[in-house]
């Protein structure tokens, strides 16, 4: 009889409060919330684009979209999201399909949790 193990991937999402604090101090609450909302929308859309690009084998475009995720997520303090986006871009550029598949799955998990964590913030973390 074969036994199967189920792996639960629960990773901590790292938020950089300094990035958010900087946005709030530079733009004020309304301006910062506008930037964060637009960033969350862009991250969600581009994250969805990655799966389609991967399915169609368009690795250069995938790497480009992943690099854009780094900039957007860093701007709003999503350190884990930015780090894993960099890993995805590197895997796409190297052409390592196995590593790319694994890092894309990880980015989806981190992305979902990161977006939820930011939306769940009721007030700025300072």
Notes on the protein architecture:
- There is one protein chain.
- The chain has helices spanning 17-55, 59-75, 79-94, 97-120.
- The protein is mainly α and 126 residues long.
- The longest helix is centred in the first third of the chain and has 39 residues, at 17-55.
- The mean pLDDT is 87.
Summarize the structure.
By secondary structure, the protein is mainly α.
Detail the topology: elements first, then pairings.
Elements: H1 17-55, H2 59-75, H3 79-94, H4 97-120
Helix pairs in contact: 1-2, 1-4, 2-3, 3-4
Number of strands: 0
User: What portion of the residues fall into strands of 2 or more residues?
Assistant: under 5%
* SSE series: HHHH
From the N-terminal CA to the C-terminal CA, the straight-line distance is: 55 Å
The value of Rg in angstroms is: 16 Å
Largest sheet: none
Low-confidence segments: none
- Helix fraction, binned, reads over 70%
Looking at the structure, what is the overall shape?
A: globular
What structural class do helix, strand and pairing data support? Answer: mainly alpha
Number of helices: 4
Q: Mean of residue pLDDT?
A: 87
């Amino acid at each position: 009889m074969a036994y199967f193990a189920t792996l639960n991937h629960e990773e901590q999402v790292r938020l950089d409060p300094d990035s958010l604090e900087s946005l709030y101090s530079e733009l004020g609450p309304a301006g910062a919330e506008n930037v964060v909302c637009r960033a969350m929308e862009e991250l969600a859309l581009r994250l969805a684009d990655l799966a389609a690009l991967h399915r169609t084998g368009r690795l250069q475009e995938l790497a480009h979209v992943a690099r854009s995720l780094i900039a957007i997520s860093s701007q709003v303090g999503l350190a884990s999201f930015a780090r894993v986006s960099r890993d995805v871009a590197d895997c796409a550029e190297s052409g390592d399909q196995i590593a790319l598949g694994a890092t894309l799955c990880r980015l989806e998990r981190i992305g979902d949790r990161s977006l939820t964590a930011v939306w769940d913030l009721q007030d700025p973390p300072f």
